[in-house]
């Protein structure tokens, strides 16, 4: 009985030591898990911070593009106002010399006063309200990553090229959505609307009122011209008169071997700020509110150049020139894009 009594404390002591060892091991495991949790938390915080940095980068880039677009429109309106002031000044001098011929000058005075009316040059307030509304919806913007200005143009007009206006060295697709240069002079019917000295083609339908936006795919090309024109643009005769932008009837941007030039009424404007850049497609936006014609790099809605004419005096037609072969580097067609379904920028 005495031996059994002595064994009981020993067993209890061994049991307690065993329990202490178990607790020590458990504390070690808990410490390791604490370190693991801390590490995972830091990794999660780093990933979340990176996502917020990406969102800030996207928003900053879109803000830059949007502000640049507004600056281009403001510059175009200022140029138009300065030109109209100079026009009024010269007309005033002419009137002082020709008061005796007032009856024959009345029509010119009336037309000039109409063109230089300051009320005709105004901001497109409806578009600006849309811009502000779209800017507020930041969550939708971040998900789609489409620049805010792109959303304003997605109600684009369908453009169908008129084969009866195409130069005989242009092949117009059956659906009227592309123009391709060929060295072969095609057997096509002669008519008064066909260009016979420049590689131009214009749309079947024109438009007069409101806003209009369309896009042309220009990738892998080294030479092209595109823009808007009145139906009165010359189709025959001197080649220079029929080029887009060389007369008062049309506005265009020309691309040749890496250089961009904007043209209207024979005046050229070299776009040195985008020299060497290439775009997948070019967008053309026009608004009868102030006579605005704006060209953009449609990939990122980068403003290229804007004209502000004050008012349009006739219907406008879309016009493109795919250019000659340019020593074998320019065989790709110009393709009219469906601007309302343009893919978002990734």
TrEMBL record:
Residues in the signal sequence: none
A Pfam family reported for this protein in Swiss-Prot or TrEMBL: PRY
Domain (B30.2/SPRY): residue spans on this chain: 138-343
PROSITE patterns the record matches: B302_SPRY
SUPFAM superfamilies attached to this UniProt entry: Concanavalin A-like lectins/glucanases
InterPro entries, per the entry: B30.2/SPRY (IPR001870), B30.2/SPRY_sf (IPR043136), Butyrophylin_SPRY (IPR003879), ConA-like_dom_sf (IPR013320), PRY (IPR006574), SPRY_dom (IPR003877), TRIM/RBCC (IPR050143)
Superkingdom, taxonomy of origin: Eukaryota
PANTHER family (UniProt xref): E3 UBIQUITIN-PROTEIN LIGASE TRIM
Name of the protein in its database record: Si:ch211-28p3.4
Organism name: Astyanax mexicanus
